[in-house]
Amino acid sequence: MLAADHGPAWPGRLGSPLDDGERQTLEEDPFAAQWGYLSWLFRNALALRKQMQLRALTGQACEVRNELANYRPLQFAQFRRLWEQMPE
């Protein structure tokens, strides 16, 4: 969606990550964006602020990813919030 709407160089247009490694990775492959960056982008990029469903989805996906990455069990309520944000 981001590449289709904003072109393959969308990270530079919408807001590059602060981390040099992540920025370089996105320059090489714009489909390699991580959840934290996507969540930040949907909260901060002016061009994306109206996309509330994707803003909520990326925020919830980032939260779930962080729980799993830190070996914490996922609560059913967290899963359900993520599931409810999924587009049809």
List strands and helices in order, with pairings.
Elements: H1 2-6, H2 10-14, H3 20-28, H4 35-44, H5 52-69, H6 76-85
Helix pairs in contact: 4-5, 5-6
Report on this structure.
α4 packs antiparallel against α5 (52-69). The protein has six helices and no strands. The model has no long low-confidence stretch (mean pLDDT 91). It has 88 residues and is an all-alpha fold.
Cα radius of gyration in angstroms: 14 Å
Order of helices and strands: HHHHHH
Main sheet specs: none
Instruction: State which percent range the strand residues make up.
Output: under 5%
Instruction: Tell me the span between the first and last alpha carbons.
Output: 15 Å
Tally of alpha and pi helices: 6
Counting DSSP E segments of at least 2 residues, the number of strands comes to 0
Taken from the alpha-carbon principal axes, the silhouette is: globular
Main attributes of the structure:
single chain, 88 residues, mainly alpha, 0% strand, globular
Quick structural overview:
This protein has helices at residues 2-6, 10-14, 20-28, 35-44, 52-69, 76-85. It has 88 residues and is mostly helical.
